[in-house]
Write a structure and sequence with these properties.
Length: 332
């Protein structure tokens, strides 16, 4: 896949399904999102022989529209940002082999045998896990159709796109939803917070702060049944769970903030300690509970509640630094 034609990075990136893995690497990076690309670039800069094994290039960015919070590249189309990441990894000669890693098994000398769903196998001195976490979906008609055309899963990322909008809705009852609604209230004229219960999981102080905003309306005991529009979102069908009544709510955007689903099974299967929420536990240096295995990005227990491209790439860089130090200390 060629790097972005408008970009100064003109290196050819290889995301390959057919390609074989080499028998051994210093560092295997699991994942294909921003955290993984950053880990790849930094690992290579630390002269580690590295490879990425991921399901697709881009991760959650493949679902995003415009990214306007990645420092230095304002209003970049998400697919262009992915191409830039790919170009940067290509500059350092790191390939992405498209596959899903199943197991990271311990060998007698502390190296790891990495096995994939597609039947590939390799050995690594260190492994960086950057498998992200899926944002939970509502599962209603219109949700996928209007993704990035009014449907967003990240208020912090996309609130500024709704400056001056007549109305937006936020769905959820946790801190992300409540804080997202508060942020959106500073951009849009009217905000609806739609929550299926009448009590919030969010911290009371955040709920109180939201109640003080003059332009936020709480729709409690209510659920979204449908998202409709034309070329972009125009409104929602909302059901009041007590009366069963359905009504149409005109909005320009809907923010679905109902949580994340980290791949707990991957962590358990591979002996990585997890937090209560199912995230891979890491210390300040992105070390997991298992020596030689590091983690970065949305799959980790670090900075839960503030998930950004910039935080993911920061963790990727730190994980690569730690992995390189680990490899040098152990194998010279
Ligand atoms: P990610 O979810 O983007 O990438 C993880 C990747 O790993 C995915 O491609 C997934 O398919 C792959 N994967 C999962 N399990 C795997 C396995 N077992 N083997 C191989 N591959 C596997 O996660 P990330 O890189 O940690 O973070 C991306 C960041 O970007 C997040 O913080 C997110 O919130 C942020 N983001 C921001 C915007 C914005 O508009 N600013 C938009 C989208 C995403």
């Amino acid at each position: 896949m060629p790097a972005s034609s408008g970009s100064e990075l003109e290196f050819k990136f290889q995301a390959v399904e057919e390609e074989e893995l080499e028998p051994e690497y210093d560092v295997v990076i699991v994942g294909g999102g921003p955290a993984a690309f950053s880990a790849a670039v930094y690992s290579a800069r630390f002269l580690m022989k590295s490879v990425m094994i991921g399901e697709e290039p881009g991760g959650q960015l493949t679902l995003a529209g415009t990214v306007d919070d990645y420092i230095g590249i304002p209003e970049v189309i998400a697919s262009d940002l992915i191409e830039r990441f790919q170009g940067h990894a290509a500059k350092y000669g790191v390939r992405l082999v498209m596959d899903r890693v199943e197991s990271v098994e311990e060998l007698e000398d502390s190296r790891k045998r990495v096995t994939t769903l597609g039947g590939r196998e390799t050995v690594a001195k260190a492994v960086i896990v950057a498998i992200g976490s899926k944002r939970r979906k509502l599962g209603v008609p219109g949700e996928d159709k209007y993704n990035a055309r009014g449907v967003s899963y990240c208020s912090v990322c996309d609130a500024p796109l709704f400056r001056g909008a007549e109305a937006v809705a936020v769905v959820g009852g946790g801190d992300s939803a409540v804080e997202g609604a508060a942020l959106l209230a500073d951009y849009a004229k009217n905000v609806y917070l739609i929550h299926r219960r009448d009590a919030f999981r969010a911290q009371p102080i955040n709920v109180e702060a939201l109640r003080r905003k003059g332009n936020v309306k709480f729709l409690l005991n209510s659920v979204v049944r449908e998202i409709f529009g034309d070329t972009k979102v125009r409104g929602l069908i909302v059901e009041d769970l007590r009366s069963g009544r359905r009504s149409e709510l005109r909005v320009d955007g809907v923010f679905i903030e109902i949580g994340f689903e980290p791949d707990v099974e991957f962590a358990r299967r591979n002996g990585l300690g997890t937090s209560e929420g199912g995230y891979i536990v890491v210390d300040d240096w992105m070390r997991t509970t298992r020596p030689g295995v590091f983690a970065a990005g949305d799959c980790t227990s670090a900075w839960v509640g503030f998930r950004q491209v910039v935080t993911a790439v920061a963790q990727g860089a730190v994980a690569a630094y730690s992995a390189a130090r680990y490899v040098r200390d152990k194998w010279g």
